[in-house]
Predict the 3D structure of the following.
Amino acid sequence: MRVAVTGATGFVGRHLVDHLSHRGHAVRALARTSRGARLLAARGAEVVAGTLADPRALHTLLAGADAAVHLVGIIVESGGSGGTFAAVHVEGTRRVLEAAREVARTSLSDGAAQARGARVIVVFGCGGDRDATKRPLMGAEAEAGADVVVVTSDNPRHEDPQDIVDAIRASHILGIRAGTEPHRFIGIWAVVVEGRVFVRSWSLKPRSWYRTFLEEPHGAIQIADREIAIRAVRTRSERLKDAVDRAYLEKYKTPGSIKYARGLGRAKSRSTTTELVPL
């Protein structure tokens, strides 16, 4: 069996490479630095030089693989947009999934691959006592990029494992693209009040979808295979904001979701209440 591994130079990654090699599997690993490449080569792995931001390297890594283990992760954010939790954990996961789907589609032209039914099956989880707001976003990325998703609680630490799984599975997700630039859709929580669609943001960071809409109040939403152009309108009505509060609590009420729905009712998120008006 050929296994592709990202994050292979980390603590878990090094042990995984050794374990797979000892069991007779062929390991192909992504290496970001020359030092990492030497370390992996010494462990018997085939090395692909590159990063998660390099589609060509990811395609090379995954081509011909029977399975992939995505282990790239950080516990401290570094300077620059490429070193944030969102960039590494959410964007990185999306890029690996996109590459895997592209490789799977390409392999279907091969008779043997077609016969065994090439599919992307994702098994993943989120650790406890970490940034829980990313869980539904990562779940949405996995759902969008995989044929089958198997959710685990990873290392729950002090949290209830089922709460973690419920948060990941809280995929009442609306695909949204802020602005008119041709970038990807992201998954966010949305509610319907009085027949109108409203959204709120957890983040006020410069590159957030909310900030983008402030600068350019046009974009699109994705429903199934349909893409619908929209205009973003900030909501000033306190009555509507109260109704949106209630709608989030009613829609996202599983044990793993309710505390984040409550968080969207706090003043910072409440101030971002935005209506998405179809054009």
